[in-house]
Design brief:
By secondary structure, the chain is α/β, with parallel strands linked by helices. The chain has a single domain, classed as Rossmann fold, CATH 3.40.50. It is built from eight helices and seven strands. A seven-stranded parallel β-sheet has the order 3-2-1-4-5-6-7, with helices on both faces. Strand 4, helix 4 and strand 5 form a beta-alpha-beta unit. Helix 3 runs parallel beside helix 4. Bound molecules: NADP nicotinamide-adenine-dinucleotide phosphate. The site of NADP nicotinamide-adenine-dinucleotide phosphate has 30 residues, from helix 1.
C-alpha cells in the first residue's frame, strides 16, 4: 500500500489535506502532537468518506521520537511505504524581535524546519528506491515577504523554502517532486486571535482562504498530473502578495 502522511493532520489545513488525499484513494497517516480528540475527529471524517486512516502521533520537533515512531510504523508495515508526504505541522509564537525569547525562536524553528528535516530524511529512502514520491511543504507568505512580529516564523518558513529547492534538485531524477505551498491568511485555529475584519480589507479577494482551498492545491501537487512541477513555491493568498 502507498500511504500519504500528513504532519499536523489533526486540525486546520492538515485535516482538509487528509480528507482530500483520502478522496484520491490514499490511506492516510494522521500525525499530530497533542490534540488526540481532533485527530480522532479527522480519522472519523476520513472514514465517513469511505477512506482509511491511522493515527501516528509524534512531536516532529523531536528527532529521536520522530525516528522511533516512523521506524516502528515501517517495521509493522513491511510491504507498505509513504508515497506522499505533506510537511504541514507548524506553530506561531509571534513577538517583536526585541522582546523575543530564545524559546520562542527555537520552538518555531524546531517545529517547522527541523520537523521537516527529521520526517523527510526518514521517508526519503523509500521514495527514491520506489522511484516515485511527492513531498509538499507548507510554508507561508511570511516566509516569502517577511512579516513584522514573526522573525522566527518568517525565518523558519524561508529556510523551508530553501531546503525544498535543494531537495527538489537531489530527488528529481527519481521522479520524486518537492514543492512548497505558501498560504496567506487561512481560516484555522492558528489565526483565530487575528483581527480578520481589518486584515481582510487588505486582501484583494476580500476574505481569508479556506483550508479546503489549500488542500485542493496540495492534492494537485500530489497528483500524477503535477509530475513536471518541482522546486516551486506556489502562493495561495487571495492576491495579497505576489
Ligand atoms: P493549526 O490549525 O494551528 O494546526 C496546526 C497543526 O500542527 C495541528 O494539527 C497540530 O497538532 C500540529 N502540530 C503543531 N506542532 C506540532 C509538532 N511539534 N508535532 C506534530 N504536529 C504538530 O494550523 P494551520 O493554520 O492548519 O497551519 C498548518 C500549516 O499551515 C502550518 O505550517 C502553518 O504555519 C501554515 N500556514 C497557516 C496559515 C494560516 O493562515 N492558517 C498561513 C500560512 C501558513 P495538535 O492538534 O496535536 O496540536
Amino acid at each position: 500500500m502507498k500511504y500519504a502522511l500528513v504532519t499536523g493532520g489533526s486540525r486546520g489545513i492538515g485535516r482538509a489535506v487528509c480528507l482530500r488525499l483520502a478522496e484520491m484513494g490514499y490511506p492516510i497517516l494522521i500525525n499530530y502532537h497533542a490534540n488526540k480528540e481532533a485527530a480522532e475527529a479527522t480519522k472519523s471524517l476520513v472514514e465517513g468518506k469511505g477512506g482509511r486512516a491511522e493515527l501516528l502521533p509524534f512531536n516532529v520537533a523531536d528527532g529521536k521520537e520522530t525516528d522511533q515512531r516512523l521506524t516502528s510504523w515501517q517495521e509493522n508495515h513491511p510491504e507498505d511505504s509513504v508515497a506522499v508526504l505533506v510537511n504541514n505541522a507548524g506553530i506561531r509564537l509571534d513577538s517583536l524581535m526585541i522582546f523575543m525569547q530564545n524559546a520562542q525562536w527555537h520552538s518555531v524553528v524546531d517545529t517547522t524546519l527541523n520537523g521537516f528535516f527529521y520526517v523527510t530524511r526518514r521517508l526519503l529512502k523509500d521514495m527514491l528506491t520506489n522511484r516515485w514520491g511527492r513531498i509538499i511543504n507548507v510554508a507561508s507568505l511570511s516566509g516569502i515577504k517577511g512579516l513584522p512580529g514573526q522573525a522566527n516564523y518568517s525565518a523558519a518558513k524561508a529556510a523551508l523554502i530553501g531546503a525544498s529547492k535543494a531537495l527538489a534538485q537531489e530527488a528529481g531524477a527519481r521522479k520524486v517532486t518537492v514543492n512548497v505551498v505558501a498560504p496567506g491568511f487561512i481560516e484555522t485555529d492558528m489565526v483565530k486571535d487575528l483581527d480578520e475584519k481589518t486584515l481582510k480589507t487588505m486582501i484583494p479577494a476580500g476574505r481569508f482562504g479556506k483550508p479546503e482551498e489549500v488542500a485542493d492545491l496540495i492534492a494537485f501537487l500530489a497528483s500524477e498530473q503535477a509530475a513536471y512541477i518541482t522546486g516551486e513555491v506556489i502562493s495561495i493568498n487571495g492576491g495579497l502578495y505576489t
